[in-house]
Amino acid sequence: MLILFDDGIAEELQTERVGETTFRLSETPLASATTARRGDVVELVDEGKIWRFVAVTEPSTHVTIELVVPTEGWTELRELFDYVAQIGGEWERAYGGVVLLHVPPAVAIEVARRVREAGSV
User: Fold this and answer.
1) Vertex 109, ends 93 and 121: CA angle to 5°?
2) Longest Cα pair distance anywhere in the chain, in angstroms?
3) What are phi and psi of 73, to 5 degrees?
4) pLDDT band at residue 83 under the 50/70/90 scheme
5) d(CA 74, CA 26)
6) What are 55-79's pLDDT values in tens digits?
7) Which of 36, 63, 98, 109 lies 20 to 30 A from 121 at CA?
8) Contact present, 93 and 99 (Cβ < 8 Å)
């Protein structure tokens, strides 16, 4: 679905309908300066071929950790991605080397420590 954010940037994002005008974001918008993230429930207004962002109505319960991974660094991070999945988190990749880790707040410090140990920050 094409979503127009407050800063005038529109992004094509995967969503899951929650209510009549509310949707859970399945992806994090990266081109826009919006604070909306994967897992947030957002209110949108249908304006024909585009949906206009109104607000985050229910923030995700996860914390997002962003990092840039060089092409040769993916193999070393496989264990980190597996760990994130084991603790109930998710990760997404964008633009080739941008990685967003979405993790429960209680384990965010541990995940950040593991990221540093992997040498990816």
Assistant:
1) 50
2) 48
3) -90, -5
4) very high
5) 22
6) 999 999 999 999 888 877 677 788 8
7) 36
8) yes
Return the residue matching tokens 């994967």.
38
CA angle in degrees (0–180, nearest 5) for 21-25-30: 125
Query: Is the Cβ–Cβ distance between 92 and 38 less than 8 Å?
Result: yes
What is the identity of the amino acid at 71? T
Burial 36-55 (b: 16+ CB within 10 A, else e): bbbbbbbbbeeeeeebebee
Q: How far apart are CA 85 and CA 88, in angstroms?
A: 5
Give Cα separations from 97 to 14, 18, 67 (angstroms): 20, 31, 8
Q: How far apart are CA 38 and CA 98, in angstroms?
A: 14
Asked if 63 and 102 count as a contact pair (C-beta separation under 8 A), the reply is yes
What single-letter DSSP state applies at residue 89?
-
Per-residue pLDDT at 116: 85
- % of the chain exceeding 70 in pLDDT: 97
Count the helix, strand and coil residues of the chain and give each as a percent rounded to the nearest 5: 25, 35, 40
Tokens encoding 110: 């541990």
